[in-house]
Amino acid sequence: MKNQIKVALPLLLGALWGVGCGGPMDEEGMAGETPAANPIPEQYLEPEGSVDGDGTVGALRACCFFRCSDNVLRGPYPNIEYGNCTNYGKYRCASKGMAFKNSSWRDC
Questions:
Q1: Is residue 75 one of the residues assigned to a domain?
Q2: Rounded to two decimals, what is the model's pTM?
Q3: Which of 1, 24, 52, 70 to pair with 10, CA 20 to 30 A apart?
């Protein structure tokens, strides 16, 4: 039984890997595709005037910034979700052996 598993498992994994990758792409499939000029959909692009006239930051342009005990401003971190900036700052400062000082949301 063990010999059958030793033979069947590599064959099964090899078949899954070969089929799962989809195989090589032919030249015809690549010729029909053209790279998009702007791959980001319109709904995710920042609207005109995302920064208000009074200096506040619009929601689509806000990035996380934080300071550790060395007083160096670190950022921007645009992929941090709102509410997690302080937690992320505490984590990053601790990983560098420093104390967390403060965090803020600013314009990217």
A1: yes
A2: 0.46
A3: 24
- In a 13 Å sphere around the CA of 92, the CA atoms on its Cβ side amount to 22
pLDDT digits (tens, 9 = 90+) for 57-85: 555 678 999 999 999 999 999 998 888 99
Distance from C-alpha of 45 to C-alpha of 37, rounded to nearest angstrom: 14
Structure tokens of 101? 């000082």
Exposure string of 72-103, with b = 16+ CB inside 10 Å and e = fewer, is eebbbbeebeeeebeebbeeebeeeeeebeeb
Q: Provide the number of structural domains found in the chain.
A: 1
What is the percentage of the chain residues whose pLDDT exceeds 70?
A: 56
Residues sharing a CB contact under 8 Å with residue 78, sequence separation 6 or more, in sequence order: 63, 64, 108
- Give the per-residue pLDDT at 81: 87
Calculate ∠ Cα 73-75-77, nearest 5°.
155
